[in-house]
Amino acid sequence: MRVRLFEFEDLSWFPKFIREGMTDFLRYFLTATNYYGPVVPMLNEALKHTQAKQIVDLCSGGGGPVQEIQKGLSAQFGNNIPIVLTDIFPNIEAYTHIASTSDGAITFCREPVDATDMAEDLTGFRTLFSSFHHFKPEQAKKILRDAVDKRQGIAIFDGGNKGLLISLGIIIFQPILFLLFTPFFRPFRLSRLLFTYIIPVIPLCTIWDGVVSMMRLYRPKELMQLTKEIQADSYLWQAGRLRTGMGMHLTYLIGYERKQ
């Protein structure tokens, strides 16, 4: 049974500046640790199979690990494929900052993008990092079905481990990380300092969402079950787990059309 607890980031009424403070922290952490570095070879192989002209990153939040993914593809494989950031709640300031430091490799959509019903003209290999767990099974299947219906490849990567120790680690260490590194988050926001050090709403909401996220993670077997339920036999699917350099795990699901 999947946990039904809410995450603050998912709430439509949730204050924008707090949500963006939370996603800025996640981007900083994922970038500083290169958490998703191990997926670069796998992603590059999927891109070769699909011959996609660009990556469309869904549910990008504050930009997540996209900068490191783009650098990894370029440095390891000479793959300079452009990446487009999208989200239902786009963090325009963060995306502008990322785009300005990417030499044109990363762009973004200013308008909200629904991962379950993508515009026909927004084509490219779809990625989701640290976001698929936000979706209940019916919504998750819509994301997969939309990619299949529009004949786009898709790769889902979700980092973390289920378990009490991980949840305790989030509760204990995330406040320390916020206190130490908040001044270095970019783009700079005065509201982030106020609602971290004076009124610690951003750290508290991030801790809650972090613990709930670990409880809501899909296992590889569950991801494959979703693909069976959408009956996408024309697609080749693979799911599994990888170990990160930090000793944690990430789950993945990759799908693209079978070669005729």
Structure in words:
The protein is of the alpha/beta class and 260 residues long. It has a single domain, classed as Vaccinia Virus protein VP39 (Rossmann fold). It has a 7-stranded mixed β-sheet with strand order 3-2-1-4-5-7-6, with helices on both faces. Helix 1 packs across helix 8, helix 2 crosses helix 3 and helix 6 packs antiparallel against helix 8. The radius of gyration is 17 Å and the shape is globular. The mean pLDDT is 91.
What sequence of helices (H) and strands (E) makes up the elements?
HHEHEHEEHEHHHHEE
CATH architecture: 3-Layer(aba) Sandwich
| Number of E-type strands | 7
Structural domain count: 1
Average pLDDT, rounded to a whole number, is 91
The main pleated sheet reads as: 7 strands, mixed
CATH class: Alpha Beta
Return residue spans where pLDDT drops below 50 for at least 5 consecutive residues: none
Sheet-strand content, in percent, reads 15-25%
Strand order of the largest sheet: 3-2-1-4-5-7-6
* Structural class assignment: alpha/beta
How much helix, percentage-wise, in residues?
A: 40-55%
CA-based shape: globular
Assembly level = single chain
Radius of gyration: 17 Å
Using the coordinates shown, work out and report the CATH topology: Rossmann fold
| CATH homologous superfamily label | Vaccinia Virus protein VP39
In whole angstroms, the N-to-C terminal distance is: 38 Å
Number of helical elements? 9
